[in-house]
Design brief:
By secondary structure, this protein is of the alpha+beta class. The chain has two domains: about 35 residues; about 160 residues, Jelly Rolls (Sandwich), CATH 2.60.120.430. It has two helices and twelve strands.
């Protein structure tokens, strides 16, 4: 069967074999970026305190940027794939990747890459999805996530999960793809394509 015929058939069935994710952008998360402001000793909690405001410190976090100096606003319902690589050195010795799992800190893997949705771009105003539950979440080296439902854009703050950031060095490289438009064809579509192909390749009786 000709490739052009296959493309026509798959298009009619609503499936493009060449569809792919759309890159939103890439950014870096320095080892000294922090989601925490003070009060290191107990669990990250919601509702009060300075733990949501990382501004005012040299190791403050910042929102994901596509263009330097401009935070990217994510739209509710978008399906994202976040990939991260690189290494952060803690305390001048231990080199850890974004998916490192060596125990927990604030109920998330220590030294790993974590994220937090904020309703503001210039400061952390955490989106409180579940009262009393840590709003920060594990990203690691690979995460598929749907942007939470909210009436205005959300901003993604990221950091290495550590209590004392000033002794860190290195950075994680982060790429975010929008996979909302990547089709997942129903099985029936694949069966129909198979039947059409089989019919085209079966020789007619003499």
């Amino acid at each position: 069967m000709k490739l052009s015929t296959l493309l026509v058939l798959t298009s009619l069935l609503g499936f493009s074999p060449f569809a792919s994710a759309s890159l939103i952008g890439a950014d870096s998360v320095a080892g000294v970026n922090s989601l925490y402001f003070q009060d290191w000793g107990h669990g990250y909690n919601t509702g009060s305190g300075n733990e949501f405001n990382a501004l005012g410190r040299g190791d403050s976090a910042r929102a994901f940027e596509v263009v330097t100096g401009s935070a990217y606003g994510f739209t509710a319902g978008d399906k994202l794939q976040i990939t991260a690589s690189g290494c952060v050195v803690d305390d001048g010795s231990n080199c850890t990747g974004p998916g490192y799992s060596g125990g927990d800190f604030r109920d998330l893997p220590v030294y790993s890459l974590i994220g937090l949705w904020s309703t503001k771009a210039a400061e952390i105003v955490a989106l409180d999805l579940t009262s009393g539950v840590n709003p920060a979440f594990f990203i690691g080296s690979l995460l598929d996530i749907i942007v939470p439902d909210f009436t205005s854009p959300l901003y993604l703050f990221m950091a290495t999960n550590d209590g004392i950031f000033s002794d860190n060095s290195g950075a994680y490289s982060v790429r975010i793809n929008d996979v909302s438009q990547v089709p997942t064809p129903p099985v029936i579509y694949l069966l129909l394509i198979g039947l059409v192909l089989a019919r085209c390749f079966v020789s007619k009786p003499a």
